[in-house]
Write a structure and sequence with these properties.
The chain has helices at 18-24, 26-43, 54-69, 87-90, 94-98, 101-112, 269-272, 275-278, 283-288, 330-333, 342-361, 365-380; strands at 4-6, 9-11, 14-17, 45-49, 82-84, 121-123, 126-128, 138-148, 182-188, 200-201, 222-223, 231-235, 240-241, 251-260. The chain is α+β, with helices and mostly antiparallel strands and 384 residues long. It folds into two domains: 4-273, Sandwich (Jelly Rolls); 315-380, no CATH class. Bound molecules: 2-oxoglutaric acid. Residues 146, 161, 186, 199, 240-242, 253, 255 line the site of 2-oxoglutaric acid (AKG).
């Protein structure tokens, strides 16, 4: 792509090939990481080509097809596009992209270490960039298929979300804070072409002052065409928007964002992938989507338990007393949940069994599950 000169200087959309770097070995991959970070810093956007295979993309689209097919264009007021989320729960194939190593390393640099120019990690009144004690926690922020069908973005089916920047979509935009709160990725699950709606971008717009200003919205755009399996990355300050699809094929993209973990997630991952599904994920993915305590007390559950020590356990039930599973000292804590006396224990167990049976008879399966879990906790609690 040729260079572009606009209100923010002379810029270009740099492209780096992940497959080539992977085949060349560790040094080439480290160089790719540096190049990607430097290009993002300088131009506000960068493309990693061949980040996954076209088969990976096809598998993801096939897994998501039932959800996409069941979703009308323009649901949630966003015109011209079909938007479908909850990718972690719905598509195993998406995990490869959501947890792509080059993207995670970039997010670590931009979010944890605030490596982009003008930013810094500020903790306890001091500033730093990634050294011990100067890292912000971050996590997955949203997952969304953005499917621009034929006609999407034309006058007949306009995009209601025009050129925009992601910071500020949640109202508070951190203009003067000197931080990058989020990084966005657009995965090309089909080829992105000039006529099927490849994303429009304003190169350099992440450097607009004030940061959330509007000059950027009147600057000429270029389109980030890319082949299936590539990913376009930009900062939360970079101005962008979906293109119009004047072709007769769908443009299928997947928007994956990461943000600082002390902010609310735009797509609530703990609801989009609730504990009974999250339990089946590998621990790194559980943590990436937010089942952890990223900073101090944040995200504790019930009796100040970490998610891994509570909701991610098989039979954890918040309505069951003692579900935390921690031992009690009768001298200090009083009677335990499981009485030591065998007769009292049996009576308690029978009482819970009877209530479970009543719940089943009343077809209240949710209550029955609580009693089932209560019995499970009772039988494994220490009988002191
Ligand atoms: O679909 C695209 O190319 C980008 C659109 C986008 O970021 C959005 O509308 O949220």
């Amino acid at each position: 792509m040729p260079t572009v000169t606009n209100a923010f200087g002379t810029h270009e959309l740099k492209r780096f090939d992940y497959r080539v770097a992977t085949e060349a070995g560790a040094d080439a991959l480290a160089r790719l990481d540096d190049d990607v970070l430097r290009s993002l810093d300088r131009h506000g956007f960068v493309v990693i080509e061949n980040a996954v295979s076209t088969d990976d993309c096809d598998q993801l689209v096939a897994e998501m097809a039932p959800y996409i097919d069941a979703t009308p264009h323009g649901l949630h007021g966003l015109g011209g596009t079909r938007r479908v989320g909850a990718l972690v729960a719905r598509s195993q194939a998406s995990h490869k992209m959501i947890a792509h190593p080059a993207i995670l390393r970039l997010a670590q640099s931009v979010l944890a270490e605030q490596r982009l120019s003008g930013d810094a990690v500020r903790i306890g009144g001091k500033s730093g960039k990634g050294e011990k004690g100067f890292r912000y926690p971050w996590q997955l922020h949203l997952t969304q298929i953005i499917d621009v069908g034929p006609g999407g973005g034309t006058d007949a089916l306009p995009h209601h979300l025009k050129m925009h920047r992601a910071n500020g979509m949640w109202v508070y935009d951190f203009q003067d804070a000197g931080i990058d709160p989020q990084v966005e990725c657009m995965w090309a699950l089909s080829d992105f072409t000039l006529d099927n709606g490849a994303t429009h971008i304003v190169l350099g717009s992440h450097r607009e002052q004030p940061r959330g200003g509007h000059v950027s919205h009147t600057e000429p755009t270029v389109q980030a065409n890319m082949s299936k399996g590539s990913v376009l990355i930009w900062t939360g300050w970079s101005v962008h928007g979906a293109g119009a699809n004047t072709s007769d094929a769908r443009r299928i993209g997947m928007n994956i964002n990461y943000a600082l973990a002390f902010l609310a997630q735009e797509e609530n991952q703990l609801l989009a992938c609730p504990p009974h599904l999250a339990r089946k994920l590998d621990p790194a993915m559980q943590r990436l989507i937010g089942y952890r305590q990223p900073a101090g007390a944040l995200n504790y559950v019930a009796e100040c338990q970490a998610p891994a020590d509570s909701v991610l356990k098989g039979d954890f039930d918040v309505l069951v007393p003692g579900a935390h599973g921690h031992e009690m000292d009768p001298g200090i804590d009083g009677p335990t949940y499981a009485p030591a006396d065998p007769a009292a224990f049996e009576e308690k167990r029978r009482g819970l069994e009877a209530r479970k049976a009543e719940a089943i008879a009343a077809d209240d399966l949710e209550a029955a599950l609580h009693f089932k879990n209560a019995i499970s906790v009772l039988t494994r609690s220490p009988r002191i």
